[in-house]
Write a structure and sequence with these properties.
Elements lengths: L6 E4 L2 E4 H15 L3 H9 L3 H12 L6 E5 L5 H19 L8 E6 L2 H13 L7 E5 L12 E7 L8 H11 E12 L5 H23 L2 H13 L3 H10 L3 E8 L4 E7 L1
Parallel strand pairs: 3-4, 3-6, 4-5, 6-7
Antiparallel strand pairs: 1-2, 7-9, 8-9
Helix pairs in contact: 3-4, 7-8
Function: Methyltransferase required for the conversion of demethylmenaquinol (DMKH2) to menaquinol (MKH2) and the conversion of 2-polyprenyl-6-methoxy-1,4-benzoquinol (DDMQH2) to 2-polyprenyl-3-methyl-6-methoxy-1,4-benzoquinol (DMQH2).
Organism: Asticcacaulis taihuensis
Pfam family, one: Ubie_methyltran
């Protein structure tokens, strides 16, 4: 992906970086009420398995402070909270003291946060570990070296400057802190690539129109996946931000990838 300091890809178009911020905000404002359904449509429902695997890999521990950036409706944070509670219970059962983990959802879009909170209320979820706030992945209101783990799931391709967001993640993590990015990526097989490309451009926008009455937002999301760097290029960007031992794991033949690094 080529990108200057003043422009950023919005789907297949290059737009002013400041304009992209507003355009992406509008996309997610439009899809917020159907966001979880949107992920089902875009992944064929497999995103649940990807998220389970990513959260298990992060392996949240009692007392840790974890950022769920672009946390949307809280899908990742709830998984992390459940895992952290289980780890706390195991520690207490062995006779050790243990504190709750602290999981901070940060999202640029107020509508996404509202949708997440409403989901918690509807399902009567008790989530003492989770907090919600509006914030910018490229300018986090967090002190340096204070976070144990950072995860961003299906969000980083939507920021105006991916490298700046990676730099911010590195800044807020403690030395040795863990970075995780779960994102749609590029299939490693030409057969899978052809199938997923056909599904992406023929089925997903149609389903967006059918399910959410919003073809344009889904068209953007499909195009944004196509424009996102491939696995090795993105790994290089993570390393450029200063992360050590950067690596990735492909899911579903590279349709999705989990990237990791250590601060």
């Amino acid at each position: 992906m080529t990108q200057s300091a003043s422009t950023s890809p919005f789907g297949f178009k290059d737009v002013d970086a400041r304009e992209k911020v507003a355009m992406v905000h509008d996309v997610f404002k439009n899809v917020a009420s159907n966001y979880d359904l949107m992920n089902d449509v875009m992944s064929g429902g497999v995103h649940h398995l990807w998220k389970d695997a990513a959260c298990a890999r992060l392996n949240p521990q009692p007392g840790e402070v974890i950022i769920d950036c672009a946390g949307g409706t809280g899908d990742i944070a709830r998984r992390l909270a459940k895992l952290a509670r289980a780890a706390k219970a195991r520690r207490i059962a062995r006779g050790y003291a243990a504190k709750d983990a602290e999981i901070r959802i940060i999202d640029y879009n107020e509508a996404m946060i509202m949708a997440g909170r409403e989901k918690s209320q509807r399902q009567h979820l008790d989530e003492p570990e989770i907090s919600w706030s509006v914030g910018d992945a490229m300018n986090l209101a967090i002190e340096d070296n204070t976070i144990d783990a950072y995860i961003i799931s299906f969000g980083i391709r939507n920021v105006a400057d991916v490298q700046v967001a990676l730099n911010e993640a590195k800044r807020v993590l403690k030395p040795g802190g863990r970075f995780f990015c779960l994102e749609f990526s590029h299939p490693t097989s030409s057969v899978i690539s052809k199938i997923y490309e056909t599904y992406s451009f023929k089925v997903i926008p149609f389903m967006g129109e059918l399910v959410a009455k919003d073809r344009d937002s889904y068209q953007y999301l499909v195009e944004s996946i196509q424009r996102f760097p491939d696995q090795d290029t993105f790994k290089g960007m993570i390393e450029k931000a200063g992360f050590r031992n950067a690596r990735y794991t492909n899911y579903s033949g590279g349709v999705c990838a989990l990237h990791e690094g250590w601060a």
